[in-house]
Amino acid sequence: MLSALFWASNAIIGRVLKDHVDAIDMSLIRWVLALLILLPFIYSSLRLESTTILKHWPIISLLGFLGIACFQVFLYLALQTTAVVNALLLLSLCPVLIFIGNLIIYREFPSAKASLGIIISLLGVTTIISHGNIEVIETLTFGIGDFWMFLASITWAAYSIALKNKPTAISQLTLLFSTAVTGTIVLALAAIIFESSSVTSAWNISTYSALVYLAIVPSILAFICWNRGVELIGANQAGGYLHLIPLFGAFLSLLLLGEELELYHLLGAILVFAGIILTQRN
Length: 282
Hints:
Order of helices and strands: HHHHHHHHHHHHH
Distance between the termini: 19 Å
Shape: globular
Helix content: over 70%
Radius of gyration: 19 Å
Largest sheet: none
Number of helices: 13
Number of strands: 0
């Protein structure tokens, strides 16, 4: 649940910074800062667990590539060009994609209750982002930004499924740091290859503060909570909580943008929570 709240704020800040910092720069700076913040806390653990890290480097590299590099860049690219409604709708496909991925790869069949829960939660998300009006969904148009958002959803589903194979002998912080290192290397290479479109004149205290926030909350705290959650209840059940991201995003908009609380917000919230409860009762 905390991961969903943290990532909802990530989408809002990413949208705010879209005209000043490009997707690759935003992701790279965010994770470099996160690594610097983490290093003093896990330096000793890194030395003790270095042999285990090297032994499991292939899966660690895959997790870094999918969750740290690809997902973050695809998400920020999407927020630069697509409507927030479209982004939230496509992000809501993640739980369904996780179910499908686990079915194909591990032959894990979701229970009837879990499947029904996902459908109910998705209905709740649709209620919120459509403002309770089906015509909003019917008139949606999709473009390149939505393509990036769909790729972001696929990569996050793949990351969540791949967590099943993460090394259990490595602590949560060490795993996060190790995956962040590989993801940051990929981001650095991408930054070298692709020309930056960041606006230098926009680098002020507000921009710096936003990037520090991204490094601490949606990066370190959210990933620790998500990885631990998947470890405890599995990717299928954890995936249901991703429907909270649009819900939290809507309510953060109410608080930060001064929008009014409407009946469809409450109805959507009830449906999302009802769906999540069902997914937890296999």
